[in-house]
Every structure is written in C-alpha cells, then in structure tokens.
Design goal:
The complex is a heterodimer of chains A (622) and B (176). Chain A is mainly alpha-helical and 622 residues long. Chain A is 59% helix and 2% strand. The radius of gyration of chain B is 28 Å and the shape is elongated. Classes of the chains: A mainly alpha (622), B alpha+beta (176). At the A-B interface, helix 3, helix 4, helix 5 and helix 10 of A face helix 1 and strand 3 of B.
Chain lengths: 622, 176
C-alpha cells in the first residue's frame, strides 16, 4: 500500500532498506533472549537523544549546575519527563547489560572465533559504569558530590599514579568548577564517542560472524535473517522497556538531592544501586580501598575475560555458568544486605542513614520551594539560599546551642530528646497568643524549668529570684480575675501580640484598643482592675494600628517589653539578655559565641520570619 | 513456503515496522516538545513597567538630551538579578516641564544611538541613521522614528515605562 510505495521509493534510490534487511544471520532461529543487544542499542539511542536535549539546558559550574537541573526538572515543559527518561534509561541499561552477560555465558556466544566481539562487549560494560559515575556528579547535589568524593578517593588508591590521577579527575586539589567541566566533557563528549566506536566495531564483527550459535545446535538447523523474526521480538522488548522507563519517569521523578555543600555532613550518601556491593565491601572494617574497589572488580572482569578459554567441553560450560551465577548471587546478596541495613535494620547506623535520608529530602524540597519563590535563586547559587533559610538552619542551631537549657515542643529542635532535663522555658510556642496568655495567668508553670538550674551555675540566683519574683506573684494574684473575663484577657493578649508585628500572626484589630486600655489603665471592667503592667515594665508601644508609639514606665526595673516577641527583640535577647532583663537575668549572652548571622537565623526562626509557600500563606494564627 | 506464509510474513513485517516506529517516535516526540520550551512557555507579562531613572534636576534646563541606564530586576532562567542594566534611554527636559524619553536602541538593527553635545541631531554609529532632537528621522536608514517611552514625573523623580521594540520594521511593536 502507501507505506510500501514510500519504502520502495526510498530503497530504489538509497538501497538502505534492502541492504539492512538481510544483514545478519541467526543460526537456529530467532529467540527472545537474543534481544539484549538491540534493547541496549535502543536505550543508548534514548540516552543520546535525551542527553543532547538536556545539554541544551544544562550549565556545568558550581553555581549553576544544580540550578540549571532544578530549572529543567521544575520549570521547563516536559523537562521532568526528559530528565526522567535519561535517568531511568541508565538503570534499564544496567539491568539489560546484566541479562546480556547471563545470556552470553549461558549460550556460550563467544565460541566460534567470537572472542573479540565478547571482549568489546566487556569494555562497553565498563564504559557504562564510567558513564553512570560521571553523570551522577553533574547535578552537583549532595548525593553526586559525596559519591564522587568517594570515587576519586578510590582513584587515588591506585598504586604509584593514584594521587596524580585523582587530581586530573578533580581538575585540581579541590572540587570546583573544573571538576564539573571535566566530568561533563567525559560524559557528553569522550565516552559517547568511544562507546559508539566500540559499538560500530562490534557490529561489523557481528555481521561477519553472525549471531553466536547457541549450544547443541542440530546439524540441520535453520538460519534466519534478522528481519523480521528477530526484529519483531526486539521491537516488543524495546517498546516494553520504554514503557517501564517512561512510567518510572512519570511516577517517581528522577531524584535531585539538596545542593552540594561540603560543610554539611550527609550520612545518606550512596552511589546508585549497581555500585552498592562495592560500597558495602569498602565499608568492611579494615578493608583496603584499592582491593575492594579496584582489586575485586578487576579480578571478576579478568575471569570474565578468559571465560571463552575456560568454556570448553561439557565441564567447561558448567564452570563458566557456575562462575557467572556465583558472581550474580554474591552481588545480589550484598545489594540486598546493604538495602536491608540502610532501610530496615534497627541499628545506630541504619537509623542515622534514615534520618539523614529524610532530612536530605526535606532540604531538597525546601530548596526547590525557595527557588520557586518570588526572590528566586541568588547569583551565589542555591546552596547559599539553604544556608540562609531560617526554617532550615534555626532548628540546627537551636539543637546545638539552645537545647542545653531550652526545649522546643519537648524536643531539641531536631526531634531528638534533650540530653538533660530542661532548665529554661519551652520555646515551642514562643511569642504566640498562648505563650503570652500563659505568662500572664500561669507564669510559674511557664518558667517552672528554671528550678532545674544547678546551684553552682552563675545564674542560679537569678533563676531562683524569677521563680519567687514580682511577676510570679502578679500572675498568681490575677489568675482568677483574668480567667473569669476571657474577652478582656483576649484583648490584653491581642495588644501584647501586636507589639511583635509578626508576619505570620493576623492581629484582630477590633479588640486592640480595649487591650491597650487594660494595659495602660489597668481597668478590666466597671468593677475590676489589675495592677498596672506599666508600673513595673518599661515599654514603648509599637507605632502601628493607629497607635502613636507612646512610651510608658521609663526606667522601671522589670524586663523591657518594647517590641516584645519581634525578631529584633529575640535577636537582642540571644545576643545579650541583659538588654531586656538587666540584672534579673538567668540566661548567658551569646554574642561572643554565635556570629551575627547565626543569631539572626535563630531569631527569625523563633519568630516565624521566613518564606512560606503559596498554599500556606494563610498566616499561622498562633 | 505454503501459501499461508507470505501473508503471515507480511503481517509480521508490518507489525515489526509499527513496533519500531513507535519505539522511535515516542521519545522523539517527547524530545521535540521539550526542545520547543522557549516558545511553549511564554512568560506571563507583568503589566506596564515603572522604572526609576533619574532626578528631574539632573536634566539640563536647555533641553539637551542626556542618556541614562535603566536598572531593574531581571529574571534569567533560574536567577533573579537585582538592579541590573536592562537598557538605556535618552531624556530631554522640555521648556514646559514635560520630559521626553526614547529607547536608546536604534529601530534599524539595534545600535546604541549617540548624541554629540551642542549638535542638533541623534546619530547611530552603525549605519549612520540620523534623527532630530524630537526623535524624527532625518534620513531613511531607520524604518521608523526613535521609539518613544511613557514618562511619569513624581516628587522630582523621573520614571520611565521601559520597553523594547521589534527592530527593522516600520511599525512600533513591543517585544515581550
């Protein structure tokens, strides 16, 4: 019909179709298991196609690699799909290469003068591993960065030339721009060139020798040409593999870890699953790097290379099959063991892996959210964004510097238990309406942990004074009267909460004036009043919500409440609590211990002063 | 070969060809869409611009044209650059207090239009396009006069609605 008319037209002028139709012979007929090389060639084609497309959007420098991959994955049309195809085609190639090796040894395809075909295939298998290792680094995320640190250490373990080779690979002493450009030149330039040359050479040899005959072929066996019998089977296998790769690309998008940051440790650093057996053997205590990562794999490849000479006669075939089976079982078992230890085992290292794995994913998601925010990625790159994000860094700093005394929602900020009993208030809801209400009607409960301050501490006296001080008694005296008048109490709390001007708290302006009156006059209602706050506290009200910013209670002795609960108030509190508390201070000053940016990150985190994604711009009413 | 086999053979050939066609077409199609990303993903236009250029008092009273860079935020793929030069404008303060503004790009092929102090014309150095001090063409090198821009003067500050226009066409068409 029409299609055959077109194909005839083309064939009469180029000879392409008729030439390729009978190009190779398959003794004994077409078989499904002969499909491996075709699927591998097809997958390589996918890699080249998607690789070229990704190349048009990827930028190999330490400030733009992660950023450009993020852009492909989350912004560009079909970017995630193209990247997913590229990523999962690699996994598919490793699986099919394994199947190809199994089929080759089972059928003894290297017999009959086909040793060179086989050896070229082994070299291409090695190239496949180099491909995946160089590609893994290119997104410049924590996963690829840490994996490449390990890989270059393995290179360095080579006797004599190791150190120089490592520097050549890294592009210098340190990881940097040149590591990326060199790996990229290998991955997109040299390796595809070598792989193609080897594939062409191999194809010429296959045309010369035909497909390797399977064992025990009868004398009168049929021989078919590739088209259409084998081509049909290969087509089905290719389409099926494409379907699986595409489905994975859609359902489980190619992973992108948080941006590479050598200053942050990452226990969940792992290479791709096909390298995990080497990873596991490397981690046997006392194991030599060269032996584990180069010696053992080298020995296996060495034996594989001489299989054509081992595989002679009936005993030889079982020796060859037995060796390959043993290798696969050992690799599979080690892989399974590693996955079990990482994801299931209730050991310290297993748990450390899972914690780091989860926090890595969280940080990656947060970096993407910040990158998609109106501020966008700064010129310094995405890693800087994460380092300056209060939501990410606050809990880390809190756990390290504050959790010695303070709990945060009963943990240390990073969901771990405190190492000793808290000796300062729980800051989980600091600055919220609940916190303020608690300070007013249950001050002794709020500050109860101060009782745990050790007697030898410099702050023991101040801590005891707070627990037995004027505010504690004020709270006791006014507890009932305030709780009996919830509307008035809420108004007073609202006025105090308004002083922080926090972006994540929407103030109810209708009750602010009432709250202000209670604060300034002490009049709760016609027949009740409270002891004036401004009789003890110095305070300049905020110049907002129509208030004039009046100053009250100058030079009073109680803590200064100006801007209470704002980022600036907390910043001063951390740097030097005496600014607010004067001598009534039970907390050390951190200005010498923490840098300004660290204090700023803590203060912003504690006061909700950080970017929130669109879905949650509903201010958190705390 | 029996008489059945040729048709089976043909069917097999057709099926094989279809399988391979699909296996090649699907990734190629996906790749084609991806490669068209710059056209398919048009940036949402953010509305009229209002870029601060300079103070009113910096412009000469006698109406001599002076050129200024326009500094604004610029989004380039994954980066947002702040206060980056996105273009240049020529400004003239007129006797009635009005300020005229033109995009400094020549509408011919985009060279930067120049003005020599004391002269009575704008000159583009690329192909010697000439405009008078009202932006109108003196010769016919450029296809249209200099591209005017909307100006707002508020509290002594001159704001310009900066925009770029298609080059080498007779109509003034805004790009982007």
């Amino acid at each position: 019909m029409a299609v055959s008319k077109i194909t005839n037209w083309i064939d009469e002028r180029t000879g392409l179709l008729s030439r390729s139709r009978n190009v190779v012979e398959i003794p004994g007929g077409a078989r499904w298991r002969y499909g491996c090389p075709a699927v591998l060639a097809f997958l390589f084609g996918i890699e080249v196609l998607t690789g070229l497309l990704l190349w048009a959007a990827y930028s190999p420098s330490t400030r733009t690699a992660w950023e450009s991959v993020f852009y492909i994955e989350h912004v560009m049309v079909f970017g995630s799909l193209v990247r997913g195809l590229h990523h999962y085609a690699t996994h598919a190639m490793v699986v099919w290469a394994g199947l190809y090796l199994l089929q080759t040894v089972w059928d003894g395809s290297y017999r009959g003068r086909r040793e060179v075909v086989y050896w070229l295939g082994l070299v291409m298998l090695g190239l496949l591993f180099v491909f995946s290792q160089t590609g893994y680094l290119l997104p410049w995320d924590q996963r690829g960065y840490t994996a490449t640190q390990v890989a270059t250490e393995i290179v360095a373990s080579t006797p004599v030339v190791g150190e120089s080779m490592q520097q050549l690979a890294k592009g210098g002493i340190d990881f940097g721009h040149h590591t990326l450009t060199r790996f990229f030149a290998l991955h997109a330039g040299l390796l595809p060139l070598l792989f193609t040359l080897l594939a062409v050479a191999r194809w010429q040899l296959v045309k010369k020798h035909g497909y390797g005959p399977r064992r025990d072929l009868p004398e009168d066996h049929a021989t078919v040409s590739y088209w259409p019998d084998q081509a049909a089977r290969d087509g089905v296998l290719c389409l099926m593999t494409l379907g699986i790769v595409a489905a994975l690309a859609v359902v489980e998008t190619a992973p992108l870890g948080p941006p590479a940051d050598p200053t942050v440790s990452y226990e969940a650093a792992r290479p791709e699953w096909w390298f995990l057996p080497v990873f596991r053997i490397l981690h046997i205590p006392g194991m030599d790097t060269f032996v584990a990562a180069q010696g053992i794999p080298g020995a296996i490849f060495g034996v594989l290379a001489i299989l054509p000479f081992i595989d002679r006669g009936k005993s030889g075939r079982w020796l060859a099959r037995g060796f390959v089976a043993l290798v696969f079982v050992a690799l599979g078992g080690t892989l399974g063991l590693t996955l079990y230890e990482d994801f299931v085992a209730e050991t310290d290292s297993g748990q450390a892996f899972r914690v780091s794995y989860d926090s890595g994913k969280k940080n990656a998601d947060r970096t993407v959210a910040l990158a998609l925010s109106p501020t966008g990625i700064p010129v310094e790159g995405a890693a800087v964004m994460l380092r300056e994000d209060p939501l990410t860094q606050g809990p880390v700093l809190f756990a390290q510097y504050c959790s010695g005394c303070h709990a945060y929602n009963e943990h240390d900020g990073l969901k771990n238990a405190l190492s000793e009993a808290a000796s300062a208030p729980d800051l989980g809801n600091f600055g919220s309406r609940d916190w303020i209400k608690q300070s007013l009607v249950a001050f002794d409960e709020q500050f109860a942990p101060l009782a745990n301050v050790s007697e030898e501490s410099d702050h023991a006296e101040a801590a005891a004074a707070i627990l037995d001080g004027d505010m504690k008694y004020w709270s006791e005296d006014h507890r009932d009267i305030l709780l009996e008048r919830p509307t008035e109490l809420d108004a007073l709390v609202e006025y105090l909460v308004a002083q922080s001007q926090r972006a994540d708290i929407t103030v109810d302006e209708s009750i602010l004036q009432q709250g202000r009156e209670i604060f300034v006059d002490g009049t709760l209602s016609a027949d009740s009043e409270i002891a004036l706050c401004i009789d003890c506290h110095e305070f300049q009200e905020v110049e907002a919500f129509g208030f004039p910013g009046e100053v009250f209670g100058e030079e009073n002795y109680a803590p200064i409440l100006t801007g209470y609960g704002s980022t600036e108030w907390v910043r001063q509190m951390i740097a030097d609590p005496a600014t607010h508390y004067g001598d009534n201070n039970a907390m050390p000053a951190f200005a010498t211990q923490l840098s300004e940016s660290q204090i700023s990150l803590l203060a912003k985190w504690l006061t909700g002063n950080f970017y929130r994604e669109i879905e949650s711009t509903e201010p958190v009413d705390r | 070969m029996t008489s059945e086999q040729p048709s089976r053979r043909n069917a097999l050939t057709r099926v094989t060809a279809a399988l391979w066609a699909a296996a090649v077409a699907i990734p190629t199609g996906i790749g084609a869409v991806f490669s068209l990303d710059p056209i398919l993903r048009k940036k949402a236009s953010t509305g009229p611009r209002r870029d601060r250029v300079t103070s009113l008092e910096s412009l000469p009273e006698d109406g001599t044209p002076v050129d200024f860079p326009v500094l604004a935020d610029k989004v380039d793929a994954w980066n947002r650059f702040t206060k980056t030069e996105i273009g240049r404008v020529w400004l003239r303060k007129m006797p009635n207090g009005q300020v005229l503004a033109w995009n400094a790009k020549c509408p011919h092929v985009g060279g930067l239009i120049d003005y020599k102090p004391g002269a009575d014309e704008f000159i583009c150095p690329l192909h010697h396009s000439l405009f008078d001090t009202d932006g109108k063409r003196i010769n016919k090198v450029a296809p249209r006069p200099m591209d005017t821009l909307d100006v707002e003067v508020k509290d002594g500050i001159v704001y310009v609605a900066y925009a770029d226009f298609r080059l080498n066409v007779t109509d003034k068409e805004e790009i982007g």
